[in-house]
TrEMBL record, chain A:
Keyword Nuclease annotated: no
This protein's name: Putative thiamine transport system permease protein
Pfam family, one: BPD_transp_1
Mode of membrane association: Multi-pass membrane protein
Highest taxon of the lineage: Bacteria
PANTHER family: INNER MEMBRANE ABC TRANSPORTER PERMEASE PROTEIN YNJC, MOLYBDENUM TRANSPORT SYSTEM PERMEASE PROTEIN MODB
GO BP term, example: transmembrane transport
From TrEMBL, chain B:
Pfam family, one: ABC_tran
SUPFAM superfamilies cross-referenced by the UniProt entry: P-loop containing nucleoside triphosphate hydrolases
Highest rank taxon of the organism: Bacteria
Tagged with keyword NAD: no
Signal sequence coordinates: none
Protein name: Putative thiamine transport system ATP-binding protein
The UniProt record lists the keyword Protein transport: no
Alphabetized Gene3D superfamilies for the sequence: P-loop containing nucleotide triphosphate hydrolases (3.40.50.300)
Keyword vocabulary terms for this entry: ATP-binding, Nucleotide-binding, Transport
GO molecular function, one term: ATP binding
Length: 565, 211
């Protein structure tokens, strides 16, 4: 008799999931207790409702909450709509190839850098107004318009959309091959449906469940975002999350209690937005189903394509143009309104970075590189242990890994901050690195799991039939074959770490500064060139690693055409 | 229990209560057992079970005896059964000679000795001088010959062939087939061949098991 393989519990995966979820759970608890008035370190010894009462009496608190929910839901819905229309109308065409090649690098741009770029583009004194002034608009000085920081949060919503479209697009693109989309679509087109109708009627119902978690992650992030809100969002009042951060920094301990109550409200608000989204999903599904059964075949394919292209281009090009303007500002010598271009170029803003700047860059890199390397080892351990256990799928693990991305950062970072003070790692590189890991690990796992699982298993079977040990198979066969996605995963980890604002500022306690926190600190100062330099650094530091990820495999495997993509 | 050859002792493989294959055969050294059947008939599951790669969702009973030793529960790397697939599956990140050296047993020490064995096996299939080549630049027939020599260098006790000739064109197929069968007979290796090509079965001219 062949003994059934003993099903041992997968300790490696279990401990990594614990490593991810424990800080979230502890952090949430550490937020909840002060919200109920209990935090002995700050003199709160008994449970009381004062923090909640203070929060509810804060001026315009419900406006802030409505702004957070509204901008977050709008940004998520718009991003998804753009991505779906783009894939539905243009998949397999030339413009699709062009736009998707432009989108992948945008994914690695930190939110703050993209938001600064957009601000420099659309502000009343920004590049677009300059381009048309004074010859078309007659403006000799910047018009007095509230384009940035508008009270409805339109600029902030747009700033979120230009960053979330590339993310959702790449998630959809990764999910498409698993849905058999091409055959489904062909079958429907064969029945007389246009390509676009076919997508929404037969492909989307299969595709959507595959991208639901990334969409919810976008929603949780957008309803609680801080850095984009500080750059582009309304100020009187600001959305909830940036206000919470302001209260936390307040020297008055009572405000700290109010902040923790705010963090709990933020959690409820994002949770409510998610529930609302899930309800909306049902409504849309019902409507789509009804229209599918009616059998109507819309054939205005050309119009659909135009709309799909315009919407996508309308988010991709402002993002790219904004970053170009950011680059110009970082090397401009005098750029007065209404000139469309700087009067001259200089590297002095970069040279002026000096000692402080070098220190900031150094801290950014030390944190990013160490976090990424540790997370890579964890990701490989999980994948290798799962491969050895031969489980039938990675569905559950994939969901668990998403947990830290589904809960508003500010809601559990508040508790983690208290914990870091108790342990004594607040304001240290180690503390900040550990906080970054909570967000870096999920993205690295998501990036590396697919290439790992798609590697032809027969390579390792052949190697094992030669008597090669499991370790030899891992280091001599699997990792070398996966070198390209491995290096890309490393670069993604670096980009995620460099882009972290809230964990850095909260756990770093002002003593750890990265290029992202530095650029936000400068944002109120109005020195555009210096902001631009730090914005460009957010872009360039990850870019170096992406470049290395492209060049190293090309050099190492230059004689191996079987590995060329 | 026979001390030599490969014994499939009362093997049954099923998936979701449905029996895919039931086989009880002995393959003496140097002989070929051909298992024929349409795709989805469970012949690949049989190979996976013998090699140790059967997905746990399949239920398998029975014993596999190789050279008098029960290997049913051994991990794949301790079974000493050589696998050959439809594609040659040369490791694309290694050169031809590195592919061969990867298979040479660890007991043979020293880079030079290992390289010499690899070079000699290339010569055996008239591919001498190809060692430094990128495997992707070889023709299909050359790649299959390298894959065969790589397999034999690992010193297997049995060969498992999963339609190894189906990707080759007609003329090449006969040539490679007789090369593989010849080498197996010369080394007295029991061979388990699964295929849906009747020509393979005719060429093997040995025991046939139809599904």
């Amino acid at each position: 008799m062949q003994k059934p393989q003993p099903t041992r519990p997968d300790w490696v995966s279990a401990s990594v999931v614990l490593l991810l979820s424990a800080p979230v759970a502890v952090g949430l608890a550490g937020t909840l207790l002060p919200a109920a008035g209990f935090l002995p370190a700050l003199g709160g010894h008994q449970v009381s409702l004062t923090p909640v009462r203070d929060l509810l009496e804060a001026p315009a608190i419900w406006t802030s909450a409505a702004l957070s929910a509204g901008t977050g839901l709008a940004a998520t819905a718009l991003s998804l709509l753009v991505v779906l229309l783009f894939v539905a109308t243009l998949h397999g065409t030339r413009p699709f190839g062009v736009l998707s090649r432009l989108m992948s690098p945008l994914l690695s741009v930190p939110h703050a850098a993209a938001a600064f770029g957009l601000a420099f583009l659309i502000a009343p004194s920004g590049f677009l107004v300059r381009l048309f002034s004074p010859w078309a608009t007659g403006f000799e000085r910047p018009p007095d318009l509230l384009i940035l920081n508008d009270p409805l949060g339109l600029a902030m919503t747009f700033g979120l959309v230009i960053k979330e479209v590339p993310f959702l697009f790449l998630m959809a693109l990764a999910a498409l091959p698993q849905t058999n989309a091409d055959q489904l679509s062909k079958a429907a087109q064969n029945l007389g449906y246009s390509k676009t109708s076919a997508f929404f009627r037969v492909v989307l119902p299969v595709l959507y469940p595959q991208i639901r978690l990334p969409i919810i992650a976008v929603l949780a992030y957008s309803t609680s975002v801080v850095d984009v809100a500080q750059i582009l969002g309304p100020t009187t009042p600001a959305p909830l999350a940036p206000r919470i951060l302001g209260w936390m920094a307040d020297p008055d301990p009572a405000m700290r209690f109010q902040a923790s109550a705010g963090a709990v409200l933020q959690c409820l608000l994002s949770g409510g937005a998610i529930l609302l989204w899930l309800a909306g999903e049902r409504v849309v599904r019902g409507l789509l189903q009804a229209s599918t059964l009616r059998g109507k075949r819309r054939r205005r394919e050309h119009t659909a394509r135009c709309i799909g292209f315009i919407l996508t281009a309308g988010t991709v090009f402002p993002a790219i143009l904004g970053l170009a303007v950011l680059g110009l500002w970082s090397i401009s010598k005098g750029w007065w309104f209404p000139s469309a271009l700087p009067s001259g170029f200089t590297i002095s803003h970069w040279a002026d970075l000096g000692k402080t700047g070098t220190e900031v860059i150094w801290q950014t890199l030390v944190i990013a590189v160490s976090v990424t390397l540790v997370c890579l080892i964890l990701v490989i351990s999980v994948l290798e242990s799962r491969t050895r256990m031969k489980p039938s799928g990675d569905g559950t693990l994939r969901k668990l890994v998403f947990v830290p991305l589904l809960i508003p950062q500010v809601s559990f970072l508040f508790g983690l901050q208290i914990l870091s003070v108790l342990v004594g790692i607040d304001g240290s590189l180690l503390g900040v690195a550990m906080a970054h890991a909570i967000f870096v690990l999920p993205y690295m796992y998501l990036a590396f799991a697919d290439p790992w699982n798609h590697l032809d298993p027969r390579y390792q079977q052949v190697a094992m039939s030669f008597g090669a040990s499991k370790w030899k198979v891992l280091f001599r066969i699997r990792l070398p074959l996966l070198m390209r996605p491995l290096l890309v995963t490393l670069a993604i980890g670096i980009a995620v770490s460099v882009g972290q604002y809230l964990p850095t500022i909260m756990i770093g306690a002002g003593r750890v500064t990265t290029v992202t926190t530095e650029s936000l600190a400068l944002s109120s100062g109005g020195n555009r060139s210096l902001i631009a330099v730090y914005g460009m650094l957010q872009l360039l530091l990850p870019l170096m690693f992406f470049a290395a990820a492209a060049i190293i495999p090309a050099l190492l495997h230059r004689d191996r055409s079987g590995l060329r993509v | 229990m026979p001390r030599t050859g490969l014994t499939l002792d009362n093997i049954r493989i099923s998936l979701d209560q449905k029996e895919l294959i039931a086989i009880d055969r002995h393959v003496p050294p140097g002989r070929i057992l051909t298992v024929m059947g349409a795709s989805g008939s469970g012949k690949t599951s049989l190979l996976n079970m013998v090699a140790g790669f059967l997905d746990p969702k399949f239920k398998a009973t029975g014993r596999i005896i190789l050279g008098g030793k029960d290997i049913t529960c051994l991990p794949p790397q301790d079974r000493h059964v050589g696998l050959m697939f439809q594609r040659p599956l040369l490791f694309p990140h290694m050169s031809v000679v590195e592919n061969l050296m990867f298979a040479v047993p660890a007991g043979i020490k020293g880079r030079r000795a290992r390289a010499a064995l690899a070079e000699k096996s290339l010569k055996d299939v008239s591919l001498d001088g190809m060692g430094e080549r990128d495997p992707a630049t070889l023709s299909g027939g050359q790649q299959t010959r390298v894959a065969l020599m790589r397999l034999l260098l690992a010193d297997p006790k049995a060969l498992l062939l999963d339609e190894p000739f189906s990707s080759l064109d007609q003329e090449l197929r006969a040539e490679i087939r007789s090369l593989v069968f010849g080498m197996a007979r010369e080394r007295a290796l029991p061979v388990l061949l699964v295929t849906h090509d009747p020509d393979d079965a005719v060429a093997a001219d040995d025991h046939l098991f139809k599904l």
